[in-house]
Amino acid sequence: MSAIKTIFKRELSSYFATPVAYVFLVIFLLLSGLLTFWIGRWFESGQATLMGFFSFHPWLYLVLMPAIAMRMWAEERNTGSIELLLTLPVTLRDAVIAKFLAAWVFAGVALILTFPMWFLVNYLGEPDNGVIFASYIGSWLMAGAFLSIGACMSAATRSQVIAFVLTVVVGLFFLFFGLIQVFGGEGWLVDTAAGLGFITHFNSIAKGVLDLRDIIFFLAVIAVFLAATMVVIELKKAD
């Protein structure tokens, strides 16, 4: 646990050590506001809700979470510091978990900075704060799922650009699965595919119900891709 804590602190502080982190936060906030107030026409809707705000999160995360995750392991491999990290008295599992948690907390910071929108909607009306709270939890869980995919893709290459592109491609599949029922079709195969979609489970949580099945889904995706990350790193040791 101490090893995870040490690496976690190092990784989290590294995000804020350069202006890139602050640029990312500004971009995230600007895009969130732009999509909500301009594209989503929030003021024109006349409803005290953040449904429009959260509806854009899957697509924001498709681009922004890979941008966070792409340096997670690709940079370590490119600079050769991964060999040094793995020679320290720390297990590969601890290193993978710590790096992921640091990225997830950083994503959480970006999400917390949108809280003024929550205050605004309460000032202008009487929203269902339980629904908004559940939506924030679901959004953070979905961000973690995207980041775990990014961690695995980052471990597979030395190039941050390639890691970014691979994460976007894989993320698109998970978003597409969530939309498959919208395009029509029925049957167990369609239902199974839809059950693998991020949007399916996120929309379920965003309705205000923290269903254990939706939470387990996102945690399972995180666990599977972090396990895959460890496998990829082991296979890439010889590179």
Compact description:
The protein is mostly helical and 239 residues long.
Overview of the molecule:
The chain has helices at 2-15, 19-39, 42-45, 51-55, 57-69, 71-79, 81-87, 92-112, 115-124, 129-155, 160-179, 188-195, 198-206, 212-236. The protein is mainly alpha-helical and 239 residues long. The mean pLDDT is 85. The relative contact order is 0.14. The chain has one domain. 81% of the residues lie in helices and 0% in strands. The longest helix has 27 residues, at 129-155.
Q: Order of SSEs, N→C?
A: HHHHHHHHHHHHHH
The proportion of residues in beta strands is: under 5%
Number of helices: 14
Separation of the first and last Cα atoms: 29 Å
Arithmetic mean pLDDT: 85
Unreliable stretches? none
Give the helix level as a range of percent: over 70%
Largest sheet: none
The count of DSSP E runs of length 2 or more, i.e. the number of strands, is: 0
Write down the overall geometry.
Answer: globular
Radius of gyration: 19 Å
How is the secondary structure organized here?
Elements: H1 2-15, H2 19-39, H3 42-45, H4 51-55, H5 57-69, H6 71-79, H7 81-87, H8 92-112, H9 115-124, H10 129-155, H11 160-179, H12 188-195, H13 198-206, H14 212-236
Helix pairs in contact: 1-8, 5-10, 5-11, 6-10, 8-10, 8-14, 10-11, 10-13, 10-14, 11-13, 13-14
Comma- or semicolon-separated keywords:
239 residues, 14 helices, 0% strand, mainly alpha
